[in-house]
Amino acid sequence: MKTPAPNFLSALSALRAIEEGSLSSEALVRACLDRIDERDATVRAFTQVDSERAIAQARQADRGAAAGPLRGLPFAAKDILDSADLPTAYGSPIYAGHRPAADAACIAAAREAGGLLLGKTETCEFATLTPCATRHPLDPSRTPGGSSSGSAAAVADGMVPLAFGTQTSASIIRPAAYCGVVGYKPSYGLINTSGLKHASPSLDTIGVFARTVADARHAVFGPASAREPGALRVSVCESSQWAAARPETIETLLAFARRLERGGARLRTVHLPPGLEAAVALQARLSAFELRQSLAYERRWHRDRLSPRLQQRVEAEAGLSMAGYAELRSSMRAAQREAASLFDDADVLLYPAADGEAEVGMETGSPRYGGLWTFLHLPALSLPVGRGPAGLPLGAQLIGVLGRDLELLAAAAFAEGCAAAD
Amino acid sequence: MKTPAPNFLSALSALRAIEEGSLSSEALVRACLDRIDERDATVRAFTQVDSERAIAQARQADRGAAAGPLRGLPFAAKDILDSADLPTAYGSPIYAGHRPAADAACIAAAREAGGLLLGKTETCEFATLTPCATRHPLDPSRTPGGSSSGSAAAVADGMVPLAFGTQTSASIIRPAAYCGVVGYKPSYGLINTSGLKHASPSLDTIGVFARTVADARHAVFGPASAREPGALRVSVCESSQWAAARPETIETLLAFARRLERGGARLRTVHLPPGLEAAVALQARLSAFELRQSLAYERRWHRDRLSPRLQQRVEAEAGLSMAGYAELRSSMRAAQREAASLFDDADVLLYPAADGEAEVGMETGSPRYGGLWTFLHLPALSLPVGRGPAGLPLGAQLIGVLGRDLELLAAAAFAEGCAAAD
């Protein structure tokens, strides 16, 4: 078996090789930088790369200066997350060249764990729908998905083994599915959001892109012992949203479900209850109202530098009063309570991650399969499970119980094995 | 009856006077600035006052340039909230002179509503326990409470009619009680936290200091119609924490309860269930762990400029793993579910707001009466209800149902009437 180039190693394989001395952090960082040099003119995943600093820090790590579960590992972060030593523009011309005073908590934590921030990755405008420059690594005529476009593409293309992204609707799940990588959106609030430029604070969730489920778990939980799941109970969760999915998406999802069953999972099919079907529209309203508030300063002082579609979106819920918003929040909590019943007979739900393969053009695709689960604050993970007619990745989404992220990750690791088995 | 000086008017009285033309915004702003000139060398409520801009904006408002429910009204904001045109130091020497790129969402919203940011108010170091410069307006040898020290003192002392504060444990409720003003901490998440320098994102809640309950409601909900409550059901909520309260605090609280009863409320006494007694310690742990993460950048690069007590506090939960933290979050959600039963027979709970009168010295007093309710995400309001042996204010805390802030505010308005009746 051919050993992959260092820049295509999983994070855990790379960390193990660094630990054993068979790979230096510097060699890994240089392999990633070479890949970026070679490819990023096409893919455009990065807004900023700090080669010199990354190499210097890698050398320090190789001399034993760094310690921690990410020792010597390069990572990237979506440019919606503050970094003190790299400009942070939030995908908006308003913030071109902006230098935050501090690192976002998740970046500081990854650095504290020994990781090296290789660069910042492209984000849609303020993590909404307006596309950024990034192209799909396997077909530059297509979108990588959004809004965590650069993070998904960078991990998929061998530029960096781990990258932070954020999700307010489907901004981790969708690009992960399009790009064929693991995208893990934790339970709401698990990763500290300090230093995140918020779109919708009640929904915004930081997560990670990785090449394996174990890598994603390691990035968030460190060297936590993996739980051995019992016989996994999987509910294929049908909903009205399935109607929008391409036939191959559903076929691949159901074929994947059967593979899980052959692997030992107990499978059933449930239908999303009406109360949760109705919650889809509530997520859109809550998200638009909070976005309007979060960008109140930019609306007032820089309206002409918001994209036309964002100018429109921040007005979508201009008529909602604070009393109406408070009611919307109560509806969100009611939906979260109702969602618990989905897991009476299931450990995880299986759901589409995107309509199909990445679309041709710059539009980042519909976020429809993510919004509800983000609204419910549930942990979710997108796993590559097949290929579509154009030969591009198709993903499946696994959704777990609120707060039981390690159980979702264990289920996803099992599912990953099943996906690879055929 | 003597009309109060403009700077001592309630926000709603001032807004009405401006609307009617009997008071100009400029006259109001100048009265506030005169009061600050006269008093702030002693009280030290403000870190920054922008007199010229405030007067210029007041004149614009008087010429009809501003519109909205806060038209022409000066307000202040705790210096833990970003402001683009005034330095924002978060109560830390690390950020002396720091200029954020944007206003916090709540400041931008208040400005959009026609309000004028008069200045920034003192905060304890990163909204924790390390005292700032502010003194109690009625006795400069005493603390005004913290961490929203400056906002509470400024409203109490006639410097500004409304001020934003934040609460992670009791940083609104306690200083409001000490200073004898209304302090309203909404349900978690009601006021958008974009542009807040986080201590503990799962707890941090923005709220307001005001001179009346109606002012607090207006600041958050705008001209929402006040709900007429039916016969209010009040549960005096006893707990082990009562043991720390001064005798006069309990006496005043119980006398206030009897006044509510005479006013028509139905009164009962409940005891905090064991599960919620236990949650007090969980709040402290969660808060310390998240603080450690939120200040990861400052810990790494500016440790020696954190106060000794903050250096200690950020290490308190250094040993907690992410898996342990996830469990702590699940315990928080379980406590939140359990708390719902407190309201089976009650609309609001009555609870101490502080041990007693403001303490002599700079220490900001125990946050013990706030932490649990902040952890439970419940809306809470501190109301001045009496005086202690030194003649200083004593407060009582009203706690409402999650998400039913307007009902809490209606109950508090009723209670305010009862408090004033005797």
TrEMBL record, chains A, B:
The keyword DNA damage does not apply. Residues 28-218, 224-409 form the Amidase domain. This is Asp-tRNA(Asn)/Glu-tRNA(Gln) amidotransferase A subunit family amidase. GO terms for molecular function: transferase activity. InterPro entries: Amidase, Amidase_dom, AS_sf. Pfam families: Amidase (PF01425). It comes from Pigmentiphaga kullae. Keywords: Transferase.
